[in-house]
Amino acid sequence: MKPVNKRLIGLIAISLIQLTFPLFFIAAKEQVIETGKEYLFRIQPVDPYDFFQGRYVRLNVQPLFYKTDKPGDFKRNDIVYAEFVQDTAGVKITSVSHKKTKHSLKLKLYAEPRNTLYIQLPFRRFYLEENKALTIENRLLTDRQHTNFVHVKILKGDFVITDISSNGKSLITGLPVKTPALANKN
């Protein structure tokens, strides 16, 4: 085999390997969107601007706490998995463990565990088109009477943010969405 052919085959092989990594990550996120369980976390957003990454909505997700009878099972900086249940106020944690389940979210414990675990959620930013981000910012800043939610799908420790809503309407599409308060009125 000629050296040029070996180089060409090597170049093609390396190119295929490099293309598989992004495709794998995209496929993993698509699986979360398709089969993940959706939870609505209460937020108080602010819309800042990042010079390099563009406009985004900073998700000021309300902190969550979990009371445990065994604080010795957890240490600071532990990777844990939390399971949630949706209620009228948003989301509550039902369990925290070191084992991954189908609808658990992978988290890191930043504070020293005591009887109550302070849970800091990993989603803090939601990137949008410039015009949509400004519209959502203005809507949230002027309309403080409604409860706002970030819609997050969770599957096997991973998550994908799918929407932001206020008063039962998506702030991205303007279409009606399921919210905890509206689900209880029906």
Category by helix and strand content = alpha+beta
Largest sheet, spatial ordering of strands: 1-10-11-12
Which H/E pattern describes the elements? HEEEEEEEEEHEEEH
Q: For the report, how would you describe the main beta sheet? A: 4 strands, antiparallel
Say how many strands there are.
12
Rg for CA atoms: 21 Å
User: Beta fraction of the residues?
Assistant: 25-35%
| Euclidean distance between termini CA atoms | 72 Å
Q: Would you kindly provide a written description of the structure presented here, covering whatever features stand out?
A:
The protein has 186 residues and is an alpha+beta fold. Helices cover 28% and strands 35% of the residues. A 4-stranded antiparallel β-sheet has the order 1-10-11-12. A 3-stranded antiparallel β-sheet has the order 2-3-9, covered by helices on one side. It is globular and about 70 Å long.
Features:
186 residues; alpha+beta; four-stranded antiparallel beta sheet; three-stranded antiparallel beta sheet; 3 helices; 12 strands; 28% helix; 35% strand; disordered C terminus
Short description:
The protein has three helices and twelve strands; from the N terminus they run αβββββββββαβββα.
List the helices and strands and how they pair.
Layout: H1 3-35, E1 37-43, E2 49-50, E3 54-58, E4 64-67, E5 79-87, E6 90-97, E7 105-108, E8 116-119, E9 125-127, H2 130-142, E10 148-155, E11 158-166, E12 169-170, H3 180-185
Antiparallel strand pairs: 1-10, 2-3, 3-9, 4-8, 5-6, 5-7, 10-11, 11-12
